[in-house]
Amino acid sequence: MADSEETTIIRMHDLRPAPGAKRDRIRVGRGEGSKGKTSGRGMKGTKARYQVRPGFEGGQLPLYMRLPKLRGFKSPFKKEYQVVNIDALVTLFPQGGEVTVADLVAKGAVRANKPVKVLGEGETSVAFTLKGVKVSASAKSKIEAAGGSVSEE
């Protein structure tokens, strides 16, 4: 290193913000000398006096009043059954036998953790023993006519 070059070490107390980076905030409404009187809000009108509430559309009928009201109510305790018809049971279990919810889930007919109901669309000649499912009256009569049985447990 040559003797003519001098190295400078920057220290914490030498650091300064860039010129123009630090400016005082504008103090509005503190007298006529600087941003007094209307304080940058113009002359008249709602915005000059006070802020407008959220959702205000200048006297036009607001969106929340234009939209229709919700009618009725949904019961949080309503049980929604997954339905399986007799003709689907015949295609899934052609030889009949005992059918439970777990068997139906395994075959992909219904999803797990929801109640199942068997409806009476279709005909059956094989005997089904249904366990743990709800059954409609027409489905029950068709299953029992084919020699099957139903236990809703």
TrEMBL record:
<dbReference type="Pfam" id="PF00828">
    <property type="entry name" value="Ribosomal_L27A"/>
</dbReference>
<keyword id="KW-0699">rRNA-binding</keyword>
<keyword id="KW-0694">RNA-binding</keyword>
<comment type="function">
    <text>Binds to the 23S rRNA.</text>
</comment>
<keyword id="KW-0689">Ribosomal protein</keyword>
<dbReference type="GO" id="GO:0006412">
    <property type="term" value="P:translation"/>
</dbReference>
<dbReference type="InterPro" id="IPR021131">
    <property type="entry name" value="Ribosomal_uL15/eL18"/>
</dbReference>
<comment type="subunit">
    <text>Part of the 50S ribosomal subunit.</text>
</comment>
<feature type="compositionally biased region" description="Basic and acidic residues">
    <location>
        <begin position="11"/>
        <end position="35"/>
    </location>
</feature>
<keyword id="KW-0687">Ribonucleoprotein</keyword>
<comment type="similarity">
    <text>Belongs to the universal ribosomal protein uL15 family.</text>
</comment>
<dbReference type="InterPro" id="IPR030878">
    <property type="entry name" value="Ribosomal_uL15"/>
</dbReference>
<feature type="region of interest" description="Disordered">
    <location>
        <begin position="1"/>
        <end position="47"/>
    </location>
</feature>
<dbReference type="GO" id="GO:0019843">
    <property type="term" value="F:rRNA binding"/>
</dbReference>
<dbReference type="InterPro" id="IPR005749">
    <property type="entry name" value="Ribosomal_uL15_bac-type"/>
</dbReference>
<protein>
    <recommendedName>
        <fullName>Large ribosomal subunit protein uL15</fullName>
    </recommendedName>
</protein>
<feature type="domain" description="Large ribosomal subunit protein uL15/eL18">
    <location>
        <begin position="83"/>
        <end position="150"/>
    </location>
</feature>
<dbReference type="InterPro" id="IPR036227">
    <property type="entry name" value="Ribosomal_uL15/eL18_sf"/>
</dbReference>
<dbReference type="GO" id="GO:0022625">
    <property type="term" value="C:cytosolic large ribosomal subunit"/>
</dbReference>
<dbReference type="GO" id="GO:0003735">
    <property type="term" value="F:structural constituent of ribosome"/>
</dbReference>
